[in-house]
Write a structure and sequence with these properties.
The structure holds four protein chains of four kinds. Chain A is mainly α. Helix content of chain A is 49%, strand content 2%. The longest helix of chain A has 17 residues. Chain B has two domains: 127 residues, Glutathione S-transferase Yfyf (Class Pi), Chain A, domain 2 (Up-down Bundle); 174 residues, Rossmann fold (3-Layer(aba) Sandwich). Chain B has a four-stranded parallel β-sheet with strand order 2-1-3-4. A four-stranded parallel β-sheet of chain B has the order 6-5-7-8, sandwiched between helices. In chain B, β7, α13 and β8 form a beta-alpha-beta unit. The relative contact order of chain C is 0.10. Chain C is built from 15 helices and no strands. By secondary structure, chain C is mostly helical. The longest helix of chain C is centred in the C-terminal third of the chain and has 18 residues. By secondary structure, chain D is an alpha/beta fold. Chain D is built from seven helices and 18 strands. The longest helix of chain D has 23 residues. The radius of gyration of chain D is 22 Å and the shape is elongated. The chains are: A mainly alpha, B alpha/beta, C mainly alpha, D alpha/beta. Chains in contact: A-B, A-C, A-D, B-C, B-D, C-D. β1 of chain A pairs parallel with β15 of chain D.
């Protein structure tokens, strides 16, 4: 009924039951160290790309863990893979590798037209 | 399953005045369900033999304006002070409030006055200057549902009907929705408190029904004040209502019982709108889950004619529920005017044609 | 002009509504608005708590503060007894007093609300009146309401209501004298000042948007239409 | 030789026992008054200790004091204290009267009643349990099972239940729950390797030696997930599983999760009897209802009443090792007091 077209019911709640782990499981399989992230933001603070854009590695890590895959595919393009994040990580996570794997997996899903 | 029942009453044993009330009407209730306010007054005076003043001089409390921020707090306080002044002039000390937002508002103002007496002085001064009136703080403020709650057993004794499926003999499964401003702002002003509000479940139990808990019981109906009132914002409202319907659907409730005028209307209308948008209802039929307020339900059980108390104003048709409860009614009297002349009925009732 | 931080602090409701926040997110967790909008009451409280003039200015001109639906679910849960919903009221008040509200799409809608709910208030003595719930603007009300709306004299009469008539009862006509008292209360207690502020800033915004008549005066019909059709970002 | 001085200790938990053991070795006569029929206090109910998963029994075995100068009185609760001529008189309900030259309070603490936090549904929803319930299950060697008898596939552990919460009147941090949450998460994961475990926290206050290592182990080896956000409400689904709502505060988005079980990390409160003990003397409680120290930096074990001392978690929530340290330092304060009085 077109008179009700202005109504668009939706929710932006993180729903754990509809968790998209297609990227996370790929990353964790190859980079176990990502498990130990404590979201301290050290990576974001030192990030060169983040100094110039809204790119935020800590948030990417969280999006990865919450399965927000759509957000990830756009954001990862901004990373320059300089590796400074890995140097400062207090939990010694190879963050650069996490980002590389993320980018790889996104490309893979795109070729398979799963995005 | 353990249901929410009246077991933690002692924690929130709120004082509800027993007689000699002053009625404060609700903008939304009068507008959408005028029969509900009428039957409330009738039950109180005719069935229960209590006294209540229905004063023509009181106005809106302006709560909707206050919560959409076009009425300043000072003005809100002064308007509420005027209602109190009218009470004083009539010698009334027990306010009965029909609207949930008014109820929350009256308490917000009173709590503010307790903590900041200068605010009360300001309201006194504003009212005096504007109208020459003086006021006293009422002794007791109850929501109209508190009164029905207080006399629920008496109503059960007087009622020819029960919340029972007459075909199966089983109690009807009733979900409740408590208006946010009844319990969430001041939990100690609500029967049962904010988390396990029992004001409606106790009525359901007393009247033979089975109260059914559901995960989103405490979620807002979605009114959102400015979100419903401005047309392009209404998606907020319907989104939150949908969340509730989805949550209650698996429990297959026979009825939704509400205590808030706005919620009563929204839970009725949004079922229709959602059905039109998504092509589905949350009941087993095309009608939707019936929605009643506590006054309407009390009236029905006490044997009032459903069309005299305005149940034909609901979009979700009440007839299937009336049949289930074995309530005698005349289908053809539904759409008649006061003179008994038939009117053209609505295009359709329920959620889907 | 007072700093906005001071204007916020002057409102008694801020003292009521805000103790120190510990950023736990219990408010956002149950917030119906957070579920629908990019909205986070927790971060608003944190911004107000920071006392940072610039941050608060930003809030006053943003859509964010207009997203709260005033259900006050946040109040029940806060472990520090804060009430983010009331803090929002204070922010909105200052936003309207300073004119910041016209800088956001949702803020500008205050003009619409003033012209509907506000007008109802002083005209009828009610926030809502059946004649104001018209079918065109309320298609979601459905066919039964359409029937009520189109036959309201008869329908209300049958239910013992007293629509637009003198004496007590539902939807009765509020007596002229009572309406007058309401209007004087508005005048006396700051309601009128607020409306003037909304009116003036909205008119200026209309001019800024080029929504003017042939004499260059703001055309508020065009402005209303503009507000109702502004593209929602959500 | 002068007659041995007598010290009364209220509370036979580990603080009272350890202090009693030290004091008798120093040559005093000690009477410990315990309200239960068994000493050891709360430690009797715990299954394992953080951060090393050692057994509470090992601690209890080491501090059971055996000394002819030590008397244990069970099943008695001291209701009031009176000071007369420099000595203390202690009374219980049945008018037991005890004299002492010095008094040591080791009343410990009690666990927050989680049902008071109504929005979490403890006592109403059958699959909501507390950290104490978990210790009991674990200690009995049972497996964690839902009320329906299945191993849970997902457990959410909730921090700060009854701690840092003005709504329930506890404005302070109970200090040991965060690490208990990590410990119990690991215990669940060991018990049920298939089970997903989430911790919902506000701040992770892992203050002790080796605690952070346990956190790392929880993440690395057990894949336990930590979400920063305080639980707002729990609701029960039709199948008695639970729905919870919190904010993922690091993302700034509300989050909804279904869980088979919810484990509430209940906070710790001062023992209720403390209020009685403060009557008719100069003892004072602090704002959190624990005993107030004369000076919280320098004289933590000394009360506001001369001759009355405190040990362990009647001062504030403490871990086991801190409690034992506190008991020993209290013993030194008692000794100092009695020796100085002698001169």
């Amino acid at each position: 009924m077109n008179t009700l077209d202005f109504l668009k019911p939706r929710s932006r709640q993180i729903d754990f039951e509809n968790f998209d782990d297609r990227i996370l499981s790929y990353v964790l399989e190859k980079e176990q160290s990502f498990l130990t992230c404590i979201s301290c933001g050290g990576c974001t603070a030192t990030c060169s790309a983040g100094n110039l854009t809204h790119f935020n590695i800590r948030r990417i890590g969280l999006s990865l863990r919450r399965g927000n895959v759509n957000e990830l595919s756009n954001e990862i393009e901004k990373c320059m893979f300089c590796g400074k994040c890995t140097l400062v990580c207090p939990r010694d996570i190879n963050i650069r590798n996490v980002m590389l794997l993320l980018k790889k997996r996104v490309a893979q899903l795109k070729t398979e037209k799963l995005f | 399953m353990k249901t929410l029942n009246s077991d933690n009453q002692q924690l929130f044993d709120k004082e509800i005045a027993g007689d000699d009330y002053y009625y404060l009407r609700s903008c939304i209730r009068q507008n959408f369900f005028p029969g509900a306010e009428k039957v409330f007054l009738d039950i109180l005076t005719q069935k229960l033999g209590r006294k209540i003043i229905d004063d023509e001089h009181h106005t809106t409390c302006s709560g909707i304006g206050y919560h959409t921020d076009i009425v300043p707090f000072d003005t809100f306080q002064a308007i509420i002070a005027r209602q109190f002044a009218l009470m004083k002039e009539k010698g009334a000390v027990n306010a009965v409030v029909s609207c949930i937002t008014s109820f929350g508002g009256y308490h917000e103002v009173l709590e503010t006055w307790k903590e900041f007496p200068e605010e009360k002085r300001k309201a006194q001064e504003n009212l005096k200057k504007a109208t020459g009136r003086d006021f006293d703080v009422p002794k007791n403020i109850a929501h109209a549902c508190d009164i029905i709650y207080k006399y629920r057993h008496e109503i059960a004794r007087l009622a020819p009907y029960k919340l029972v499926n007459t075909h199966t003999g089983e109690p009807l499964r009733v979900v409740d929705h408590v208006g946010c401003h009844y319990a969430k702002i001041f939990p100690d002003k609500a029967v049962g408190g904010a988390e396990k509000t029992t004001v409606l479940t106790a009525m359901i139990e007393a009247w033979g029904g089975q109260p059914v808990n559901y995960p989103e019981r405490r979620h807002c109906c979605g009114f959102g004040f400015r979100h419903y009132l401005v047309k392009p914002n209404r998606s907020y409202s319907i989104s939150n209502a949908r969340k509730k319907f989805e949550s209650m659907q698996p429990y297959r409730p026979d009825l939704i019982l509400t205590n808030c005028p706005g919620c009563n209307m929204f839970l009725d209308r949004w079922q229709y709108a959602l059905a039109q948008i998504e092509g589905k209802t949350y009941s087993d039929d095309k009608n939707g889950i019936p929605v009643l307020s506590y006054e309407e339900l009390a009236g029905l059980l006490l044997g009032y004619d459903p069309w005299h108390i305005g149940l034909q104003m609901h979009q979700v048709d009440l007839e299937p529920l009336l049949k289930r409860m074995g309530i005698a009614y005349s289908a053809e009297a539904k759409y008649r005017n006061a003179k008994g002349i038939p009117m053209t009925p609505p295009k359709f009732t329920g959620c889907l044609e | 002009m007072k700093m906005v931080v001071q204007q916020l602090a002057d409102d008694v409701r801020l003292k009521e509504g805000m103790n120190a926040c510990m950023n736990c997110g219990i408010c956002t967790a149950v917030c119906p608005a957070a579920e629908y909008f990019e909205y986070d009451p927790r971060s608003i409280v944190v911004a107000v708590q920071s006392g940072n003039e610039e941050k608060i200015q930003q809030l006053l001109t943003s859509d964010t503060i207009w997203m709260c639906g005033q259900c006050m679910s946040c109040k029940t849960r806060c472990p520090r007894s804060n009430c983010p919903g009331i803090i929002i009221n204070v922010l909105r008040k200052v936003s309207q007093a300073t004119g910041a509200f016209v800088q956001s799409r949702l803020g500008r809608q205050q003009y619409l609300i003033m012209k509907t709910i506000g007008a109802n208030l002083l005209r009828y003595g009610y926030c809502i009146h059946p004649s104001a719930v018209d079918i065109q603007n309320h298609p979601e009300q459905g066919p039964v309401w359409e029937w009520v709306y189109s036959n309201r004299e008869e329908v209300y009469e049958r239910l013992g209501a007293n629509l637009d008539r003198e004496g007590p009862g539902a939807m009765r006509k509020i007596a002229t004298n009572d309406l007058l008292e309401l209007a004087v209360i508005f005048e006396q207690s700051g309601g009128t000042v607020l409306w003037q502020s909304i009116e003036t800033h909205s008119k200026n915004k209309a001019i800024e948007l080029g929504l003017v008549d042939s004499q260059g005066n703001p055309c508020m019909d065009l402005y209303t239409n503009y507000l109702l059709n502004e593209d929602p970002e959500f | 030789m002068t007659k041995k001085k007598h010290i009364a200790i209220i509370g036979g938990g580990i603080a009272g026992l350890e202090a009693g053991s030290v004091l008798t070795r120093q040559g005093y006569k000690v009477t410990i008054i315990e309200k239960e029929n068994k000493t050891g206090g709360l430690l009797n109910h715990w299954s394992s200790l953080f951060p090393d998963f050692s057994l509470p029994g090992e601690v209890l075995a080491r501090i059971q004091p055996e000394n002819p100068d030590l008397t244990l009185i069970h099943n008695t609760c001291i209701e009031s204290i009176k000071k007369e001529n420099g000595r203390f008189e202690l009374f219980d309900k049945r008018h037991l009267k005890l004299y002492a030259d010095a008094l040591l309070l080791a009343t410990g603490l009690s666990v927050f009643d989680a049902s008071l936090k109504e929005e979490y549904g403890y006592g109403l929803f059958i699959n909501v349990i507390t950290s104490s319930d978990f210790e009991r299950i674990h200690k009995a060697g049972q497996k964690l099972l839902t009320a329906q008898g299945d191993p849970p596939k997902r457990v959410a552990i909730i921090h700060c239940v009854g701690s840092r919460d003005a709504k329930v009147g506890n404005g302070y941090c109970s200090k040991v729950c965060c690490i208990t949450g990590v410990k119990q998460a690991i215990a669940i994961s060991r018990m049920l390797p298939e089970c997903e475990v989430f911790n919902f926290y506000m701040d992770l206050r892992l203050y002790g030696s080796k605690y952070d290592a346990l956190y790392l182990e929880a993440q690395k080896r057990h894949q336990i997930q930590f979400i920063r956000g305080r639980l707002s409400e729990v609701s029960e689904n039709q199948d008695q599983s639970l729905q919870l709502k919190a904010e993922d505060t690091l993302q700034g988005r509300p989050l909804r999760m279904q869980a088979d079980m919810i484990l509430l990390l209940t906070g710790l409160e001062a023992a209720r009897q403390n209020e009685n003990l403060c009557k008719n003397n100069h003892l004072e409680l602090d704002e959190n209802r624990f005993f107030k120290s004369e000076n919280m930096q320098y004289h933590r074990n000394c009360s506001r009443q001369e001759g009355i001392f405190m040990a362990g978690s009647c001062i504030c929530p403490m871990s086991v090792n801190e409690t034992l340290d506190s008991a020993r330092s209290a013993a030194i304060e008692v000794d100092n007091y009695l020796t100085q009085k002698e001169r």
